[in-house]
Design goal:
Layout (H helix, E strand, L loop, with lengths): L1 H4 L4 H15 L3 H13 L3 H15 L5 H10 L3 H8 L9 H17 L3 H9 L8 H17 L3 H7 L5 H7 L25 H7 L24 H7 L3 H10 L6 H15 L1
Helix pairs in contact: 2-3, 3-4, 4-5, 5-6, 5-7, 6-7, 6-14, 7-8, 7-9, 8-9, 9-10, 9-11
Protein name: Tetratricopeptide repeat protein
């Protein structure tokens, strides 16, 4: 149901995903659906948390491009760039590497580094036959040219593609488009909690509001603690390094310190 709805009604898809998490929160495909639905509805901090949980459950880094884009959504382009520089990025499939490069280009643009954004796109090698992916790179290049005040170059970047291809590359889909359906709400029953599960999920109510500019993220049953995830996250060191090089000017760090002090007092 989530996959059926995510392109036509992301908010409803998110609601279905939350119900699935309540029924089977330790199933990787359930958390994956929840993370992608959160991403599509702009709940970037929640999407990051869910996709980190997925990686912890199945060891896959396939959603690294989405995670990097979530960092952009949280106004942390430096972290997005840092994720792309991790060893896990080298393990991605060729098409996923292209998606990650598009995100990095956007992050460079967020920082005002338009020439660097174009340079990233120029280095992309799209796998043969990936027409939609070619269009996505072209759309990204067009957006950079527009941001640089070069409308003619922006139009030229899209010249080799049809209007339908540009629409699809921009994320617009028709309700009639075929989708793969995973019914995540049927045949899922609450799993008995083991001592290991209790330890893994202890502290799930950790407040992530400091990471969420819009305050949208909702803590769902069965979520893994962010602190535990960061300890197991092979990319956390890279993002922390990015923060040290380019500290967040919006004051997130002091808020995080205050939250940590509060947690220690409660203990």
């Amino acid at each position: 149901m989530v996959a059926r709805l995510i392109d036509v009604d992301p908010e409803l898809a998110y609601e279905h995903a939350q119900e699935a998490v309540r029924r089977g929160g330790r199933v990787d495909i359930v958390r994956e659906a929840a993370g992608l639905a959160a991403y599509r509805t702009g709940r970037y901090a929640e999407a990051l948390r869910e996709l980190r949980t997925v990686r912890r459950l199945n060891g896959s880094s396939e959603h690294l491009p989405v995670m990097a884009d979530c960092e952009r959504g949280l106004e942390r382009p430096e972290r997005a760039i840092a994720l792309a520089a991790t060893p896990e990025a080298e393990t991605l499939e060729p098409s996923a590497k292209v998606e990650l490069a598009i995100v990095v280009s956007g992050a460079r643009g967020d920082l005002g580094e338009l020439d660097a954004a174009l340079a990233v796109l120029d280095q992309i090698e799209v796998p043969r036959g990936e027409r939609l992916l070619e269009a996505r790179v072209a759309v990204a290049r067009s957006l950079v040219h527009e941001a640089a005040g070069r409308p003619d170059a922006a139009a030229h970047a899209l010249a080799g593609f049809t209007a339908d291809e540009i629409r699809a590359a921009s994320g617009e889909v028709d309700e009639e488009d075929d989708v793969v359906v995973y019914d995540l709400t049927e045949e899922l029953v609450p799993e008995p909690e083991t001592p290991d599960d209790a330890a893994a999920t202890e502290g799930d109510d950790t407040d992530t509001s400091a990471d969420t500019p819009r305050g949208d993220a909702q803590v769902a049953d069965g979520e893994s603690d962010d602190a535990a995830l960061e300890a197991d996250d092979p990319t956390s060191g890279a993002t922390q390094t990015a923060e040290a090089v380019a500290p967040d000017e919006r004051g997130d760090a002091p808020e995080d310190d205050a939250e940590t002090d509060s947690t220690e007092d409660e203990k």
